[in-house]
Every structure is written in C-alpha cells, then in structure tokens.
Amino acid sequence: MKGFFKNVLANIVAIVILCFVFFFFFIIMIAFGSMSSSESVSVKKNSVLTINLKTDIIDSPTEEKQDIFNIKNKNMNVLIYDAIEAIHKAKSDDNIKGISIEVDHLNAGITHIDDLRSAIEDFKKSGKFVYAYGNGVSQTSYYLGSVADQYYLNPSGGIELKGLATEVTFFKDFAEKYGIGIEVIRHGKYKAAVEPFLRNEISPENKEQLSTLLNDIWANTSSKIAASRKMSSEDFKTAVDSLYGMIPDLTLKYKLADKLIQKTEYDDIIRKKLNLSEKDKLNKISLHKYVDSFKDKDSDSEKIAVLYASGSINNGDEYNEIYSEKYVKYIKELQDDKNIKAVVLRINSPGGSANASDEILFELQQLKKKKPLIVSFGDYAASGGYYIAMAADKIYSEPNTLTGSIGVFGILPYFKDIANKNGIRSDIVATNANSAFYSSLHGLTPYGVNMMTKSVEGTYKRFVYFVTQNRKKTFEQIDNVGGGRVWSGTSAKNIGLVDELGTLQDAVKFAAQKANLKSYSVDSYPKALNTFEKFFGNMDEDEISARVIKNKIGKVNYEILEQLTDEKLKSEVKMEMPYKVSIK
Q1: What is residue 67's predicted lDDT score, i.e. its pLDDT?
Q2: Catalytic hit among 97, 128, 191, 534
Q3: Which conformational region is residue 472 in: left (phi greater than 0), alpha (psi within -120 to 50 degrees), or beta?
Q4: Which residues cross the membrane (predicted)?
C-alpha cells in the first residue's frame, strides 16, 4: 500500500512539472514571437520582390491565422492593402530590380488578384522585369502569374486552366428521406440560399443569375490573361476548352508558357538578368518581409482609418468575422478619435444576421454625421454586407465583387417525422395562444408561418428603404434589381448599386480628398491580435473543438455542418448571400 501511494504521488508531481514546463515553453514562444516580429527588415541591393507559396493575401486583420496549435501552417499573412502598397513602393525602390511570382496555389480572393495584377502592370512601367514560375499551377495562380513578362513552367508541370463553373447541391430528398422538415420563408425569387431545401434542381431564376455572374467574372478574367499572353480571344478559348494547360508541351505550343525549365534554371535566368556571378547570392525578399521594411513608419498625426468588416455578420462580441457588439465599439472609437479625419469601411462579407446588420448600419450613420465615410467592396458585399454600406458617402466596388443580393430569408428545421419513426413524440403545455409557435419537433404553426412571413417582408422593405435613400432611387427601381439577385461589381455599377469601380487604395485617396487632407497616414481597425492574445484567446473549449473539426473536414464542409447545427444561425431572419464563388 505504501508503494502504491508513493507511485501516485510521483505521478502527480510529474504531471505538475510537465504542466509547468509546457506553460513556460509557450511563454518563451510568445516572447520570442513578439521579439522576432519587431525586428527591422533591411532591403539589400539587387533584390527581387518575391510572391511565393508562403504568402497568404488576406483582406482584414481578423482573417489572421490565430490557432498557434496549427504548426503545419507557416504561411505569412499580408493585407491586400499592404501588398499593393509594397508593389507601388517597389516600383521606385532602387534596391528592388524586379518581381518573381512563384506560386502554384495562391490563397487570395479574386478581387485581390485583380488588384495585384493591376499593381504589377503599373510596376512594369518602371522598366523592371517581372518573371513567373510554376509547377502544378492552379487557375488562380496562373491568373496572377500570366501578368509576367515571361512565364516559365516545370517540364513535368501543368496549368489548371478550365474556366468557371458552379455546382449547387440539393438536400430536399435527403431531408424527406430521413424525416427532417424545413420551414423556409423568403422574399425574392433570386434568394437562392434556400433553394437546396426546397427543390431538386436549380431554378430558372438562379440559373440565370449564376450564368450572368460567372460570365461577367470570366469575361474580365480571361480577357486579361489573353492580353498578357498576347493571344487572340478565339485561341485562348480553344486552349481553355481543350484543357491544353494540362500538357506541358501544349502550354508552349498554345502560348500559355514561354519555356519548360527546372526551378534552379529559373533562378539562373534571374541571376543572369541581375548580372550576378555564380558566387553571388540571389537576394529574394518576400512580400511579407518587404511590407515589414516600411509598414507603420508614417508619423502623420492626421489619419485615415480603414475599418475592415470581413466574414459573416453575427450578434455578439467576438473578434473573428463581424460581430455587432464589437463593431459598434470600433465605430464609436473612430467617431470620437479627433486624429481620425475620415473612415473607409472595407466590406468583404456575404451577410448574415439582419438584426446585427441593422445595429451596425445605425452606428455607421452616426459616424457619417461627424466625418466622411467611404466604402470599399472586396470579394463580397452581398445581402447584410451590402446593407451596412448604405451609410456611405460613396461606394467603390471591384469589377469582380459579388454585390447586392438584396433579399431576406429565414430557415427553421424540425424533426417531427424522424422522431415519430423512432418512437419519439411530445406534448406541449403553454400559457398563451402562440407560446409554442415553433418547436424542433412540431415546426411552425400556421399562425407562426404568417407572422414569420410578415417579419421577413418587413425586414425586406426596411432593407430596400435604406438602399433607396443611399442610391437615390425609387422602391420599384431597387425592387427590380433586388429580390435576392447577386450582381458582379461591373453590373452593379451599370445599374446604380455602386458609385465607382476601384480599389481600396482608390477609396482611401477619395476619403483623404473628402477630408481635405494632403498629408496623412493610414490606420487599420480592428488591430491585429498580438501573440499573447492569440494564444489565450483560443482557450474556449467549444472554439478549440470547432477548429479541430474544421481542420479535419475542411472549411467548406464545416460551413455546411454549421448551417445545420448552429442554433444562433437558425434562430433569426437572415440577410445572407446564397453561395460563394472562387476561381480555383
């Protein structure tokens, strides 16, 4: 017995020591990370600015990878605003002699790549070179790389150049088979977010809007690739339709690539371009490090604030995505900060909670009374994302932004049939006529359906009202282009849903002009979390579980699971876009 207690005590002491060592190790990691991030970066002579596989282009500080347990991910995040500023700075930087694009799979949105391409096109006017190299190249990466003076491909590589397509998955038969009922209430024939629960095939309206949207984006994208590669539109279409990019020899024959070489041979070409000997080191500086060499060195007291609103819109006070309580605080801080002379709201959101969107819009309207408020759209500014833009003095959209989706819906699943099949039933005892207008087993009562419909209709009318005020149009005009329909930025400009086609940089410049500023610095909000906050901000059990599941099944599959299981996503009227589109 004495030996037993001795062993137990020894194990307890060992566990305590291990916990202490573990905690001490992470404190050192956090301190070391903070020290390394504060080191200054110098740019050597004869450097090449490199966009490589370790670069993730993100829209907002809230998109920063915050799970430090995920040690597999060593990519560096760069804000799209900073990336564009870096390329503009490199144009006149004597130490930067050219740009090398070395990405097979670029993690960036379609509008981000548009802006990067435009900035690199402008960079080329300096006379400096732009080269690109690829192995197994995604369509996204080729879209960026095709801007180069010369495109080099690995002899055993390929280019996934295939055009755009979308696949809509339907759950109606699945729900019926397993006894899951789904009450859907919507306004707008184009509000396709609910179609997978109502139909077994795509509706004519949804097919029409998807076809228009994809063709708008592809026309813009394909014309730029063809022009950069000096191909006729007919030849480029043939190459895409025939999947010639998959065969290395055919990429040469059809002008998709200039030469098939190994990576070391590519580096030698750059070395020769710089007149370096074999003994000289090839100085490549990543986009991330180059940004660090000049970022946050502005000293102007007068500032333009860029408030990033990225992700779905929700009620609550969390950091990631757009949570109404958190954003109300941000907006009030910007409103009261005397050094902030104007605000640019950068929206990259498919929408979400109607209530949260309304809260944010109100506070933005109060902000606008005190200082200029300019809006810039990223990849998405749809539904609730478009709604919160209605406080703007002026709206800038990218040509490929998914815009509009002026519509409202509610989804309420119930499980009466599946419960009954498995011997589960319930009785309800209530104090009032509609105390149980909805339950997970019985669904909505007829009166509940009537009131939910009125709620959705009322929310839609409120949505359209704010759009009519901002866009200076009638209810009928907005209703005709609303109904939940999603438009490209180009089409949105043509029908008056936005003011100008332009970048985040364009919006910042206009904000400065509106505030009569000649000299200013740009501040980002919300501020990125430091290493300490990233670590201790992830200690919530549910959050850790969610991240583990997301890593295992993938982001897209997790979003589908979340729609079916997250109570807060099912308990309110939604202003949300029906789908996401990405070029892959």
Answers
A1: 47
A2: 191
A3: left
A4: 12-35
Q: Is 128 a catalytic residue?
A: no
In sequence order, the β-bridge partners of residue 50 are 100, 286
Give which of 64, 254, 216, 49 is closest to 583, Cα–Cα.
216
3-state class (DSSP) for residue 13: helix
Q: What averages of pLDDT result for each successive group of 10 residues across the chain (584 residues)? A: 54 56 48 48 91 86 61 68 96 97 90 96 97 96 97 97 87 78 67 71 85 92 97 96 96 97 96 90 93 74 93 89 94 95 96 93 97 96 95 97 85 75 80 80 81 85 94 94 88 96 97 95 82 48 54 54 51 59 52
Is 126 annotated in the active site?
no
At 553 the pLDDT is 53
Nearest to 182 by CA among 471, 413, 349: 413
8-state DSSP, 62: G
Q: List the alpha helices (DSSP H) in 517-566.
A: 531-536, 541-553, 555-565
Strands 402-404 and 373-382, by their bridges, are parallel
Distance separating alpha carbons of residues 312 and 317, to the nearest angstrom: 13
pLDDT of residue 92: 95
Residue 290, helix vs strand vs coil: helix
The continuous run of DSSP H or E covering 42 comes out as none
What residues form DSSP beta bridges with 79? 58
3-state secondary structure of 120: helix
Residue 278: predicted pLDDT: 79
What is the token pair recorded at 64?
A: 């920063």
CATH code of the domain made up of 303-424+433-527:
3.90.226.10
The DSSP secondary structure of 161-213, one letter per residue, reads: -----------HHHHHHTT-EEEEEEE-TT-GGGHHHH-SS--HHHHHHHHHH
Sign of the alpha-carbon torsion through 442, 448, 450, 452: negative
Q: Which of 381, 386, 375 is nearest to 402 (CA)?
A: 381
Which of 353, 416, 381 has the alpha carbon at shortest distance from 567?
353
Dihedral of alpha carbons 247, 252, 255, 257, sign: positive
Going by C-alpha positions, the residue among 371, 355, 338 that lies closest to residue 408 is 355
Chain centre to alpha carbon of residue 377: 11
Query: DSSP 3-state helix, strand, coil percentages of the chain (rounded to 5)?
Result: 45, 20, 30
CA gyration radius, the chain: 27
CATH 3.30.70.60 is the classification of domain 47-162+243-294 = no
Dihedral over Cα of 546, 547, 548, 553: its sign: positive
What is the Cα–Cα distance from 562 to 512, expressed in whole angstroms?
A: 41
CB-CB contact of 198 with 172 (8 Å)? yes
Q: Strands, E, within 315-367: which ranges? A: 322-323, 340-349, 351-353
Marked catalytic residue, from 222, 376, 383, 405: 383
Cβ proximity of 128 and 94 under 8 Å: no
Mention every residue, 6+ apart, whose C-beta is less than 8 A from residue 25: none
Measured in whole angstroms, how far is the alpha carbon of residue 535 from the centre of its chain? 23
Say what the pLDDT of residue 488 is: 93
Distances (CA, A) of 554 to 348, 548, 557, 567: 21, 10, 6, 21
